[in-house]
Sequence to fold (177 residues):
Amino acid sequence: MKNNKILIGYNYELEAHEQRQIALKDLAKKSLLQYVTNVCKLVPNDDFTEGDILSHFKTLFLAKWKDKLPEGIEYDRMLYLASIDYNKLVMLVDEFNRVEVSGKMDFGIYATTPQQMEQFKALAKVCEAVHSSQDHLPCKIFFGNLVQAFNGALRYDHRDNKLKPHDAFILNLNSRI
Fold:
């Protein structure tokens, strides 16, 4: 079976954004669990942050405090008597829920049409030829001049220090750059 797409680039910005979101989610979870354990004096289970967190909290709270407080008292009043700031708890839960994490993402940029694949392969051959001949030439190759000569179809990747096909050019984004 023939491939219907080939990898032509990698979206480092999207990957960095996803890593920041994961770090923010972990920080929000840590703050929430710290408040629940230190201030509320409750021991949350492993799945505390999955599903409805406030319901999990209410279950934990009632399991611990129901016998220690007067009967017939409503939940809000129980929280007040236990010196728990419910608004802060809601704020921490909202902060945790606000951070979106996609999970396993593919950060690759793909060519999907035959024309895009042909352009990528042709430009990749040019880049490979430049890099393989660089060691055999008596002069230095200035990649900026090649990028300009190819009208933006190539780009210099500073992460790898190599000339590469420009994925936006191949995907026909930004009106041929």
User: Anything to note?
Assistant: Helices lie at 12-39, 53-65, 75-81, 86-98, 114-134, 143-149, 167-170. The mean pLDDT is 87. Residues 12-98 form one domain. The chain has seven helices and four strands.
